């Protein structure tokens, strides 16, 4: 699986972005297709997510864990998804830099998918993986810009 | 090598004197089709029993991973869930599945549910039985498994390298078995050859994709302590030891039933794992349990063919005579040996192909990989082997500047040498192969196409012509397994049949086979009608197999194209014995010398006095009810049971043996044109000549030829499994695994020759697989099209991507893909 990258410029102070990303309730709310969210502690949450890729539809359970925090510039997270006969592992790192219009958010993610999803979605999995991760940060941007 | 010795020929030659040839060879409407085309067949999923529960599986997303923890608590607590089991639950209830492999591969531990580790993607990890399939599937989603992913081994040759990840740690190697075959003085021929042609080929991974997937209903009757398993297994008796061991029940308590089966193509040989699981669950719950596999489960995890990679060297004379072959082959058998490594010996049925090749050496390996377990898909092991030989024949022809048809004609075994004994002891029973080739070339206008090909090439069109001579060896000698494991107590190749004339003069037939659409009810009825000379409409053949009433041996079943040579021979013998008994009774009642009794048109008469005759149904009534009229001392009833036993022998110390009873042959001539924009080959012309001995029913024979061509064309151009380097199967649905539709199948011209086999009483030969000739012929044609551009195909599959790569490479220089 390739590595995905993306950037967003968010018109909010860096500390506000940091606070958002380290609040499981808030960042969890940005997971696409969220059905339920159960916060364990400030670094962990469990979510149930509705997925629909081609003919493959169902619920995926996601375990979210913060693995590294360097306030207020860097956060590394791990999302472990399982369901619909598949496993998905996303390791993402987010870097926050002060920018003219607010905060620049640069993210990098490694995605590994196994199981039915890897087969069924083989042709468009890259697009979907990219979209899923980038949606989280797009959502972050939208919510903070309000 | 040469004509078989007379004592061998007489050993094999069968008496066919009971045939009247009134019903054989006629295009009679298949008996089973009337119900099947109206949707009235009975398949496993049609079976509904009171209180039936439904089984579903959690399957592994990883091709190779350690199972760290399984939490089934949430699934167990769901309403409607009756049972949730993991590998540990199964391990407590049964011993591991017996392994037919030699040590150390025999140490592999195989359970129907994964224990501690998963070894291929889609392997069952846990099972749920619930009140409905919906509940069962929902509960499967509530099972949590923690896996520790492990590096996967997906390349068979790399699997043998030191340091490769081990599929089974307890084996200590990925090698399943290694056999070195050497027949004839290979070294001498290679020393004295004018040239040596060498190439490496890969036979790819595909499946049979039957319309009906694997299915089972297990029904434990607690009061009788009898387990009934309705299944669609192709050879239930072959696996009864596994079932008996798995369930700890003796054979007389274990009833295995097949009814109509919606296609098998070999894929349904290893579905016994589901039979065991459903049966264990039924025994636990004391309720019937049904499992019906989904299409994705079938494509991902049911059964693939073993991939094969061979390096082939041929010792050749300048005139095109092929003297000897030297091969090194590796079979990729997947994660478990559930049927394999039989494929590492079965190819030896057709060791030197169709040719007078004098010597052969084959250094053979079979290995475990983290892929779906393999079994015997259409043309099992022989099709890949003949592929290797036919491909090297084309390469030799190109090196020598000979036409591919000419080099084949030069090397084909001639009719004067039949029955022909191969260097490995195979006995090709009959046929006129050069004449078959001549007729096929003529019917296909081969030489005309060669001329047109030149003209069209000058216009820039990419045209290829392929010609292949193949064999559909049939009716296997199971002693072939001794070649890789001499200790296996499994030899010969037999089948049973019961023919009973009932008191009303009708005839009831029970077979040991479990057909999947091959028309056994029809052909068995034709043989019985022919031998007894009664009406085809008065013959009633029981559908399917039932271990509580069918006549069986441990070979019973429908695989290896065995029904025509072996099953029908048992039917013939049973009917002939019944005819003898009818004649004895008639002689007594008609006061006619036994030798003068003639049985024809449903009656017995005395040849010397036609007035003295009686209908068979009168004899039948007497035989069952009016028994004081029977000859003194004669046992009442008209039951006739026969088990046909070909005179097979075990391989000798040099692994020489005849491994099949009959050898149908076929010649396919294919013309393709390649679209330079898309790389897609289009079949312009397809001609097939088939000689399967005496034709029992031409409709069925033609159907088999059409099916073999459709599957072969698909294997060559459409059907191929793609695994990524982590062992993810990338095309487990019909969206990406391309089973052809009618649109992809070319018009085909099928012509016949009919050389009866001397080794079967009916003269019929097995022809249910087609020998892979279609795959070879299509690839031969595609390579012929690409050859002037410098491209050669290294595989049995040529998709547009491969072909475009060759076309692009052609601009830059020679390429091999």
Walk me through the structure:
The complex is a heterodimer of chains A (146) and B (817). In chain A, 27% of the residues lie in helices and 54% in strands. Chain A has helices spanning 14-21, 24-28, 116-120, 125-145, and strands spanning 3-10, 34-41, 44-53, 56-70, 74-83, 86-99, 102-115. A seven-stranded antiparallel sheet of chain A has the order 1-7-6-5-4-3-2. In chain A, a hairpin with a 2-residue loop joins strand 6 and strand 7. The radius of gyration of chain A is 15 Å and the shape is globular. The termini of chain A are far apart. Chain B has three domains: 44-150 and 214-292, Aldehyde oxidase/xanthine dehydrogenase, a/b hammerhead (Aldehyde Oxidoreductase, domain 3), CATH 3.90.1170; 402-476 and 650-816, Aldehyde oxidase/xanthine dehydrogenase, molybdopterin binding domain (Aldehyde Oxidoreductase, domain 4, 2-Layer Sandwich); 494-644, Aldehyde oxidase/xanthine dehydrogenase, molybdopterin binding domain (Aldehyde Oxidoreductase, domain 4), CATH 3.30.365.10. An eight-stranded mixed sheet of chain B has the order 4-6-2-13-10-11-12-25, with helices on both faces. The longest helix of chain B has 28 residues, at 563-590. The mean pLDDT of chain B is 96. The A-B interface holds A 54-55, 58-59, 61, 82-87, 113-120, 122-123 and B 59-63, 121, 141, 144-145, 147, 149, 296, 300, 724, 726, 728-733, 735-736.
């Amino acid at each position: 699986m390739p590595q995905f990258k993306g950037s967003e410029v968010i018109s909010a102070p860096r500390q506000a972005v940091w606070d958002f990303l380290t609040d499981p309730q808030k960042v969890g709310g940005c997971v696409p297709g969220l059905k339920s969210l159960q916060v364990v502690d400030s670094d962990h949450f469990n979510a149930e997510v509705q997925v629909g890729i081609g003919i493959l539809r169902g619920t995926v359970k996601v375990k979210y864990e913060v693995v590294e925090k360097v306030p207020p510039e860097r956060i590394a997270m791990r999302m472990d998804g399982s369901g619909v006969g598949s496993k998905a592992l996303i390791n993402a790192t987010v870097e926050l830099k002060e920018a003219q219009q607010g905060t620049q958010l640069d993210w990098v993610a490694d995605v590994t998918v196994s199981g039915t999803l890897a087969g069924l979605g083989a042709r468009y999995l890259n697009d979907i993986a990219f979209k899923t991760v980038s949606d989280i940060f797009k959502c972050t941007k939208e919510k903070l810009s309000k | 090598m040469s004509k078989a010795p007379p004592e061998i020929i007489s050993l094999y030659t069968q008496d066919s004197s009971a045939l009247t040839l009134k019903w054989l060879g006629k295009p009679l409407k298949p008996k089973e089709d009337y119900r099947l085309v109206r949707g009235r067949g009975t398949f496993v999923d049609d079976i509904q029993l009171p209180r039936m529960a439904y089984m579903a599986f959690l399957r592994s997303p990883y091709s190779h991973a350690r199972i760290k923890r399984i939490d089934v608590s949430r699934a167990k607590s769901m309403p409607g869930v009756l049972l949730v089991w993991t590998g540990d639950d199964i391990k407590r209830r049964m011993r591991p599945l017996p392994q037919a492999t030699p040590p150390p591969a025999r140490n592999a531990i195989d359970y129907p549910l994964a224990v501690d580790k998963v070894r291929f993607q889609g392997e069952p990890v846990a099972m749920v039985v619930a009140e409905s399939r919906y509940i069962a599937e929902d509960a499967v989603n509530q099972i949590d498994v923690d896996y520790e992913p492990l590096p996967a081994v997906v390349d068979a040759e790399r699997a043998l390298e030191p340091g490769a990840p081990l599929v089974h740690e307890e084996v200590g190697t990925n090698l399943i078995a290694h056999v070195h075959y050497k027949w004839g003085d290979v070294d001498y021929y290679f020393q004295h050859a004018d040239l040596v042609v060498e190439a490496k080929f890969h036979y790819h991974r595909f499946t049979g994709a039957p319309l009906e997937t694997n299915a089972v209903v297990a029904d434990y009757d607690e009061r009788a302590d009898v387990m009934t398993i309705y299944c669609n297994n192709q050879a239930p008796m072959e696996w009864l030891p596994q079932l008996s061991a798995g369930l700890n029940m003796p054979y007389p308590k274990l009833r295995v039933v097949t009814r109509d089966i919606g296609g098998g193509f070999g894929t349904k040989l290893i579905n016994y794992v589901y039979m065991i699981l459903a049966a264990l669950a039924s025994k636990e719950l004391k309720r019937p349990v049904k499992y019906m596999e989904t299409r994705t489960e079938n494509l991902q995890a049911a059964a693939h063919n073993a991939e094969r990679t061979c390096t082939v060297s041929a010792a050749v004379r300048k005139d095109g005579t092929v003297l000897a072959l030297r091969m090194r082959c590796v079979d990729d058998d997947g994660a478990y040996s559930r049927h394999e490594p039989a494929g590492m010996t079965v190819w030896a049925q057709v060791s030197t192909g169709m040719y007078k090749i004098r010597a052969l050496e084959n250094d053979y390996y079979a290995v475990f990989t983290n892929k779906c377990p393999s079994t015997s898909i259409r043309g099992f092991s022989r099709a890949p082997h003949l592929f290797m030989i036919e491909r090297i024949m084309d390469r030799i022809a190109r090196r020598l500047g000979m036409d591919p048809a000419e080099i084949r004609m030069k090397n084909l075994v001639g009719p004067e040498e039949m029955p022909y004994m191969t260097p490995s002891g195979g006995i090709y029973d009959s046929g006129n192969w050069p004449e078959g080739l001549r007729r096929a070339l003529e019917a296909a206008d081969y030489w005309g196409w060669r001329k047109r090909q030149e003209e069209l090439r000058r216009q820039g069109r990419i045209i290829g012509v392929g010609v292949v001579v193949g064999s559909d060896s049939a009716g296997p000698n199971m002693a072939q397994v001794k070649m890789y494991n001499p200790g296996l107590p499994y030899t010969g190749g037999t089948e049973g049949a019961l023919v009973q004339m009932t008191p009303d003069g009708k005839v009831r037939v029970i077979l040991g086979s479990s057909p999947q659409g091959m028309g056994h009810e029809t052909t068995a009825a034709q043989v019985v009608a022919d031998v007894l000379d009664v009406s085809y409409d008065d013959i009633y053949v029981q559908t399917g197999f039932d271990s509580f009433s069918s006549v069986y041996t441990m070979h019973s079943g429908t695989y290896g194209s065995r029904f025509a040579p072996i099953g029908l021979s048992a039917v013939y013998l049973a009917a002939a014995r019944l005819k003898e008994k009818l004649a004895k009774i008639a002689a007594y009642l008609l006061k006619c010398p036994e030798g003068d009794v003639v049985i024809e048109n449903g009656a017995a008469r005395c040849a010397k006095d036609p007035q003295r005759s009686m209908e068979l149904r009168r004899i039948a009534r007497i035989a069952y009810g009016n028994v004081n009229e029977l000859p003194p001392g004669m046992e009442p009833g008209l039951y006739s049971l026969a088990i046909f036993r070909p005179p097979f022998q075990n391989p000798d110390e040099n692994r020489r043996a005849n491994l099949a009873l009959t050898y149908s042959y076929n010649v396919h001539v294919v013309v393709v044109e390649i679209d330079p924009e898309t790389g897609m080959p289009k079949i312009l012309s397809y001609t097939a000549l088939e000689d399967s001995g005496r034709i029992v029913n031409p409709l069925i024979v033609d159907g088999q030829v059409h099916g073999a061509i459709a599957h072969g064309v698909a294997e060559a151009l459409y059907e191929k499994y793609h695994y990524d380097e982590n062992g993810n199967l990338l095309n487990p649905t019909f969206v990406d695994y391309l089973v052809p539709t009618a649109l992809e199948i070319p018009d085909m011209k099928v012509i016949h020759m009919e050389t009866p086999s001397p080794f079967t009483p009916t003269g019929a030969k097995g022809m249910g697989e087609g020998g892979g000739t279609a795959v070879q012929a299509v690839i031969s044609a595609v390579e012929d099209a690409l050859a002037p551009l410098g491209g050669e195909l290294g595989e049995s599959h040529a998709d547009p991507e491969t072909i475009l790569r060759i076309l692009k490479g052609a601009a830059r220089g020679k390429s091999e893909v």
